[in-house]
Amino acid sequence: MNEILLHIIIALVVLIGAMSVSASLIWLERRLLGVWQDRYGPNRVGPFGLFQVMADMIKIFFKEDWIPPFADKPVFVLAPAIIVAATLIPYAVIPFSPGIVVANLNIGLLFFLAMASLSVYGIVLGGWSSRSKYPLLGSLRATAQLLSYEVFMGLSLMGVVMMAGSFSLEAIVEAQRGLWFCIPQFAGFVIFFIAGLAETHRLPFDLPEAESELISGFHTEYSGLKFGMFFVGEYLGVTFTSLMIATLFFGGWQGPLLPPIVWLPGKTLVFICLFILIRAALPRPRYDQLMSFAWKILLPLSLLNLLATAGVLLILRK
Amino acid sequence: MVTIHIDGLPYEVEEGQNLLQACLSRGLNLPYFCWHPALGSVGACRQCAVKRFKSEKDERGEIIMACMTPAEAGVRISIDDPEVAAFRKSVIEWLMLNHPHDCPVCDEGGECHLQDMTVMTGHAYRENRFKKRTYPNQYLGAFLNHEMNRCIQCYRCVRYYHDYAGAGDLNVFASRDHVYFGRGRAGRLESGFSGNLVEICPTGVFTDKTLGRHYTRKWDLQTAPSVCVHCALGCNTIPGSRYGELRRVRNRYNHEVNGYFLCDRGRYGYEFVNCDRRIRAPLVRTSRGVEQVLVSTEDALKSAAAMLSERRKVIGIGSPRASLESNFALLRLVGPKNFHAGISDKELEVLNLIRDVLCLGAARTPTLSETAEAGAVFVLGEDVSNSAPLLALNLRQLPRRKAEIAMAKVKIPPWNDAPIQRIAEFEKGSLYIASPCATGLDEVASKSFHGDISELARLGFAVASVLDPANAPGVEGLTEKEKIRAGEIASALGGAARPLIVSGAGCASLALIEAAANICTALGKIGGQPQIFFALPEANSLGLALLGAAGGLETACSALRSGRADTVVVIENDLFRRCAEEKAIALFDSAKYLVAIDHLINPTTSKADLVLPAAAFAEASGTLVNNEGRAQRFYRVLVPEFEVKESWRWIRDIMRFLGRSEAEKWHRLDDLSVAMAALNPLFAGLVSVAPDADFRLAGGKIPRQAPRYSGRTAMRAHIDVFEQPPPDDPDTPLTFSMEGDPRQPPPSLIPRYWAPGWNSVQALNKFQQEIGGPLRGKDPGVRLIEPIPQARTEYFRDVPASAPKAEGEMSLIPLHHIFGSEELSALSPGVAELCPQPYVALNPEDASFLGLFEGALAKVGVEGLTCCLSVRIVPSLPRAVAGLPVGLRGAPVFELPASGTVVREATDE
Amino acid sequence: MLSILRTLWGVFLHMFRSRETIQYPEQNILDPPRFRGRIILSLDPDGQERCVACYLCSAACPVDCIALQAAQDVNGRRYPEFFRINFSRCILCGFCEEACPTYAIQLTNDFEFSEYDRNNMVYEKEDLLISGPGKHPDYNFFRVAGVAVGVKGKGESENELPPVDVRSLLP
């Protein structure tokens, strides 16, 4: 009984935590972009503009929740929900500290990959059901981009799996007790990081919503709360990708001195900031550059990494 | 067609044109000033220079004036040659030396030919450092503003006003670079066609004074094709509106009707639409003797339904100034037997006779533009300069035609203006005029003769009998002089190709029309190709006659008196102008209810128990039938405020209220055209008058506003900052918006003349098939009456006798005025200024016999009605004939012609 | 790849730079001379309205937010009967100022004219007129134009000869 209650509490804490962290990322991102662009960012609402998130939330709640008359209504409503759900569910497999995990699946990594693929549906359906040219173009781009990058996102992780000898995230974290995987699996880390950027379609890989050509891409026709869900979905993705990087390559909750429950969020925050720094610094590539980068560089690289890891492991294990 | 080469490319052009016309016809841009398609070329401005090459090998070429060189087979010219382009640029630079820095305050700005041509040649900076020449201005009357500084000395104004319109009071003065265009002394321009100077002048010397009072640039005017409502010729116009007000009227080219010009009545008569006498909301009088009160549309329709319910015996009185659709709707409301024309029985009889003569085909009626081509013209009893002004302008060109034919023999083309004008100036046209008194055309007529109406009719009959002595009825008791006169006219008509007989309803005399018809019959019998043209009083007179009325006002009156009817519906008609006041009052008093649908407060609407606000021509769409039987569509230019709508819509709503199923089908204008065409074979052509409301140009409606229309988000902002969608217009393929395809619409839907680089009216060049020819597509309008092959061969045999008058008896004849005789235009301030005061015209001998002099008061009596009028001495009036002006405000209404008395008013001294 | 890292590093270093932002309500903004703010109508050096109601500003306006109506005084001088700018539509592009041939319409440095009610953003002529010439203080259109309109006699403008004596035939 107590165990079940504990699990429910952990699940609720993770859910609320993930949601509120993602929401406050809106503020963090704007402030950080300001910092790196020699300006302030939101600094009017509350101390340091902290209540900006609340203000934005209130605004978005009270916006007219408009569905275009030409849209396919049920799908149009469903799409943002799919995105949020598909990005929230994999939080379940993350071990926040020893014993604190919603579901310690022994195929945790596979579960994450599967869920990441599901979020494509949200974007495709959102763009498609809008029945409008820019969303359609945006969602087509997103589909191709996400499918391509998923391939070697998975492949880049296989090195980690081989070294840990398990798909369970808890086991992977345990396996890094001596050396964080970012050292032996540096190539895997870089590829995963880039693929993570593309999967969350963050700048510079935000071609599905490239505002200079596609207005706002797949969510052009969305407004109000539904638009808010796309927005939160994106930040949930950013947080989650950062969590995964920290877990898979930087030893998860492990670290000296401080308790594990501080280490993982701390590492995650660094990667979130890195995501934002990249947004602040790098321009958006052309779509064909994005695709050829994926298939001509990252895919061979991840295969090579896989081969090398396997070879080294074989030699070492002998 | 011949082939000429322009800049190395071959073009098929009409032979006999000049090169400028040829270039413009083929859509090429070549600047010009002094040339005008109606005035010909004089080669004065040196602007249309092109380079001509002797052969393919010739590279030097020579600079020539395109307007002075005929387009012959194999001519090779260049427009783009750098040398000739530089030449044109420097010419315009010279023309601009003295042009003032006025464009922002110049009314021509934005539609200025000089601006267009300056931009076209590329002259941009004034390098001349010397001072500019200036001129004093003149006051030119209520219509035109004079600003001589802007003049570029192209001479077009004088060539139009003096040579073309034949008026002597505008001329060119002084010498060298002091040349001045104006009047000998300041004063109003006397011609009735002075307004065309605004469009003739390539820059802003002559601008529209009435527009200047509420000035709006061309790009800001909401425009739509329309038809002039001030006489029966049906000239095509483009009215322009802004802020819900009508701002001006411009000419709309229709090759078959008005061509390039309008008369001042048509151009300046528009202001009645804005006048404060407009009715804007329904008015109801609960019982006789109390004031009318404003009511809502709903209540108005309710009381209309109560007044016109099935129990009542309703008669309708239509109007010759209401559209065909409105008259037809009334006819359907009351039934054909109860539909009365809104004119006296006698006038209706005349109209019906004219209709029969046209339909049964004594001769074909020419289009207005064809009248200028007639070989010989006989005007019988009509003062066309006042009742059909543009016809007079056309007939004025007869001497010129004669000169053109003469000069063609020495191979001088018709567009070469100088030699032809030199001859035409002293030439008389093959024009014979028989009218009650002198008309404006007498000076170009070979012979003119003035007499009483019966004398004129007898002369007409006599001409017919000279032409066909065997069959035509002879005239008894002609004097020797009259016989010679008849013989002379007969031989002129008989010997001419396409002789034209002009008559009309101006004298309201059946005999005159019969005489005119007889001459045509006789000409037809001797193998000629006669044409007959009737001047009619109002915009839809012939439409009303074609619709068929049970009778005129007297018939309506007797129906009411006898109790056959008790309720009257009057549309767009002031009956107090149609019959004597007592008669009109009696008519209304014998009706239980009077429903009036009109746009102006007038004695009739003041008497009415229910007044419904009708839309004036600029606020309504509809069809008018002009004097040649041409049905033409006019479109609403502005959306009326408040409850104002078309008369037919009011009638339709009443019919729907009464549960009449017929009206359920009348959703839009086209539905009425279809209904009319189905009920009356004469109206079969109505459905093809103009494209129907579903017509779309590239999927969209045709915009009434220019692409540069301004103030869209600010003009209503003081009322409400939130913008409204443009008003709906179910009746027409035009929209009250600036959005639409920029391509040229079909001719009957052209809302304005504009082409890239051509902002002035001269953009018209781009809309014509050939310069001066028909519009691309077909000229607007459909002729409902075409002659039947078995032309009437029966002669009218009712020759009036020459009845000696009793002692003291005068024959009173109607006199028409271009300004004043027409009801609506006289309400416009500019026109009102020119309306004469009521008078009685007398021959000097009669006057001195009666002891009267110019300005004295005379008592005129007809059939028991008397009134006092001041005397005007008209030397050309025959003896024992007194002229009374028609339709002037404040003048008593007599039924003319009549015989009556004129005596000296006893004064106190 | 290296350039990307260098960029990242370069951007990261901006963290330690000072801020460009001007904290507007607390700090005053700079006053650039060609700032395009609230539109005004100016008077000519004689103290009369400069606007001659030529409609060029309304034609140039890309959002069609200027509406006016020309009127004439007894001398024939043109002036706007009403002149309305809907500032809730205005994009302060300055095309009207560019188009104005008389320097009547000018954009000023003032931008503090927000309203809670859009209807209050509609300015009429009375709201737009200022009591001086603004920019180009010496220009008077009617001293250059050829029309007289009570400002001067015919031929008394700059660069004009006295009016021609039409009745003279002397060479």
Q: Quick summary of this structure?
A:
The complex is a heterotrimer of chains A (318), B (909) and C (171). By secondary structure, chain B is of the alpha/beta class.
Write structural notes for this entry.
The complex is a heterotrimer of chains A (318), B (909) and C (171). With 318 residues, chain A is mostly helical. Chain A has one domain. Chain A is 69% helix and 0% strand. Chain A contains 11 helices and no strands. The mean pLDDT of chain A is 85. Chain B folds into 4 domains: 2-95, Roll (Ubiquitin-like (UB roll)); 283-347 and 543-767, Rossmann fold (3-Layer(aba) Sandwich), CATH 3.40.50.740; 363-529, 3-Layer(aba) Sandwich (Dimethylsulfoxide Reductase, domain 2); 809-904, Barwin-like endoglucanases, CATH 2.40.40.20. Chain B is globular and about 90 Å long. The N and C termini of chain B lie far apart (78 Å). Helices cover 26% and strands 18% of the residues of chain B. Chain B has a 7-stranded mixed sheet with strand order 16-15-26-25-24-17-18, with helices on both faces. In chain B, strands 33-35-34-37-32-36 form a 6-stranded mixed sheet. A 5-stranded mixed sheet of chain B has the order 2-1-5-3-4, sandwiched between helices. The mean pLDDT of chain B is 90. Chain C is of the alpha+beta class. Chain C has a domain at 51-130: Alpha-Beta Plaits (2-Layer Sandwich). In chain C, the strands form 2 sheets. A 3-stranded antiparallel sheet of chain C has the order 2-3-5. Chains in contact: A-C, B-C.
Find the CATH topology of the domain at 51-130 in chain C: Alpha-Beta Plaits
Biggest interchain interface, per-side counts: B-C, 47 and 52 residues
User: In the residues of chain B, how many domains can be counted?
Assistant: 4
Enumerate how many helices of chain B there are, as a single number.
Answer: 26
Primary descriptors:
heterotrimer; A: 318 residues; mainly alpha; globular; C: 171 residues; alpha+beta; Alpha-Beta Plaits; two-stranded antiparallel sheet; 4 helices
Topology:
The complex is a heterotrimer of chains A (318), B (909) and C (171).
Chain A: H1 2-36, H2 52-62, H3 73-88, H4 108-129, H5 133-164, H6 169-175, H7 186-199, H8 211-214, H9 224-249, H10 260-281, H11 287-317
Helix pairs in contact in A: 1-9, 1-10, 2-9, 3-4, 3-9, 4-5, 5-6, 5-7, 5-11, 7-9, 9-10
Chain B: E1 2-6, E2 9-13, H1 19-25, E3 49-53, E4 62-65, E5 76-78, H2 82-95, H3 113-121, E6 132-134, E7 144-146, H4 156-164, E8 171-173, E9 180-182, H5 196-200, E10 206-208, H6 209-213, E11 222-223, E12 226-227, E13 236-242, E14 245-251, H7 264-268, E15 283-284, E16 293-294, H8 297-307, E17 314-317, H9 324-334, E18 339-340, H10 345-360, E19 377-380, H11 384-387, H12 389-395, H13 398-408, H14 417-424, E20 429-435, E21 445-450, H15 453-467, H16 480-495, E22 500-504, H17 510-525, E23 531-535, H18 541-547, H19 553-561, E24 567-571, H20 581-589, E25 593-598, H21 603-607, E26 610-613, E27 622-625, E28 630-634, H22 647-657, H23 661-664, H24 669-679, E29 702-703, E30 734-735, E31 782-783, E32 809-815, H25 829-832, E33 839-842, H26 844-850, E34 857-862, E35 865-873, E36 881-885, E37 898-904
Parallel strand pairs in B: 1-5, 17-18, 17-24, 19-20, 19-22, 20-21, 22-23, 24-25, 25-26, 29-30, 32-36, 33-35
Antiparallel strand pairs in B: 1-2, 3-4, 3-5, 7-10, 8-9, 11-13, 12-13, 13-14, 15-16, 15-26, 27-28, 28-31, 32-37, 34-35, 34-37
Helix pairs in contact in B: 8-22, 9-22, 10-17, 10-18, 13-14, 15-16, 15-17
Chain C: H1 2-13, E1 39-41, H2 56-60, E2 66-72, E3 78-86, H3 95-99, E4 105-107, E5 122-123, H4 125-128, E6 160-163
Antiparallel strand pairs in C: 1-4, 2-3, 3-5
